[in-house]
Design goal:
The chain has 215 residues and is mainly α. The chain has ten helices and three strands; from the N terminus they run H-H-H-H-E-E-E-H-H-H-H-H-H. A hairpin with a 6-residue loop joins strand 2 and strand 3. Helix 2 crosses helix 6.
Length: 215
């Protein structure tokens, strides 16, 4: 009822739970083994730079500047919304963000972009991204709900989600000529194979490849 991606993920989680159950002797069979789940295509949605600007402008207009800041953090630092909503001001020192990614526990140190430096120039205490009405960090459901409201106000395509900003930023870094090692230093990926999921082939990347070959 939600999506095939969600259905596949649910079955994989259940399979892992039953593996533990078998190991503990609580069950004899794992009904989620060998289900023949088909690999679904990787998500390829990318934001345009104007989309990001329109989204942030709409967030500021609606009084949800925190959501605009969250979007810019995800976009410029190529990070997941879950990590960015948990950033504290202690993680931002001398223009550099230092933190461990929640999913992989990978430590990263990333310089702030000039526009992030400008947006965060007033500083603060506690969490960098806090809801205006509660002064508390967002949970996943709430920031997605408000982001959808901002997206509608900005008249942006409904397919755009905050999680796509990580992929968008990584792809733009590749288009700018960054090496794989430079990209992995920002995104936190340990494997070049995993990084390829986030960097999507684009016309600009193809043109850059041809130019490098024939220069």
């Amino acid at each position: 009822q939600v999506s095939m991606h969600r259905a596949n993920h649910t079955c994989k989680v259940l399979r892992r739970i039953w593996v533990v159950g078998k190991r503990l002797g609580s069950v004899q069979l794992n009904p989620f083994e060998r289900m023949g789940l088909q690999k679904l295509p990787d998500r390829e949605v990318l934001w345009e730079p104007q989309h990001v600007k329109d989204f942030i402008d709409a967030a500021d207009f609606l009084g949800w500047s925190s959501i605009g800041t969250l979007a810019l953090l995800c976009y410029d630092l190529c990070q997941r919304p879950g990590d960015m909503r948990q950033l504290t001001w202690e993680c931002y020192q001398d223009g550099v963000f230092s933190f461990k990614q929640e999913k992989t526990n990978t430590p990263v140190e990333i310089p702030a972009s000039p526009r992030l430096v400008e947006r965060l120039k007033d500083g603060g205490e506690g969490f960098i991204v806090k809801a205006e009405d509660t002064q508390r960090p967002y949970d996943r459901r709430r920031y997605n709900k408000i982001a959808a409201r901002v997206r509608r106000e900005a008249k942006l395509p409904a397919e755009l989600q905050l999680r796509d900003l990580r992929r968008t930023g990584a792809t733009e870094m590749a288009e700018a000529g960054c090496t794989e090692d430079e990209l992995r230093s920002v995104t936190g990926h340990q494997s070049r194979d995993v990084l390829s999921i986030y960097v999507r082939p684009t016309k600009k990347l193809a043109a850059a490849g041809i130019n490098k070959r024939f220069q």
